[in-house]
Amino acid sequence: MSYKDQIDLQKLPRHIAVIMDGNGRWAKGKGKLRVFGHHNGVLSVRDIVEGAGELGIEYLTLYTFSTENWSRPKFEVTAIMELLISTLNKEIAKLMKNNVRLNAIGDLSMLPGKCHKELQNAINHTADNTGLVLTLALSYSSRGEIVNAAKNLAAKVQSGELQPADIDEKMFEDNLYTGGMPNPELLIRTSGEYRISNYLLWQIAYAELYFTTKLWPDFRREDLYEAILDFQKRERRFGMTSEQVN
N or C: which end of the chain has fewer CB within 10 A? Predict the structure, then answer.
């Protein structure tokens, strides 16, 4: 029996976040340049998006490019940006066919002009789709996101729009890039690394963490299903006792 057949469709996580790690090591293992791994990683993205959509997952957020990634060799950064542009152009038709709505979070102003334009075009093109919401975390830093939210609220206090006592967790959350989205219930990281890497630090406070040794270009929908099945076997207590939640 496949993992998919064992999944309880009534207990799906609404929102899955993924740290797509291992492209470079995958390519190096095959004697190729790192960009070869990024190109093959796109195939995994396509398969995971389709698999999540078929199950009925509502939100899928992929850690695509961090603010720290800008410090990588210029050749690699340029190749990743060019790959993003070409992928967006190629995938719009498939996103439309699968009713996927594209979204992006992060400091998007740092993206090259053409890349930002193509991204916005794809977002606008899919805006009316009602299926899976696919969010790309681009030029993203969770610490930066939290600081940005704090600045937004501080400005409102300074202008008299808010009183400090008015600020609560819900208001703070609404000022994050992910405002309006449910927090991830499942976080998946590939490649055998056991780090969060400055990703959705606020949002994953109560997420279930799933780590796999598979490198991202080898990760496919059956691996996603395995992670969801593992999630469904866990007891989520949110600070309570087993007796309280059962």
Answer: N
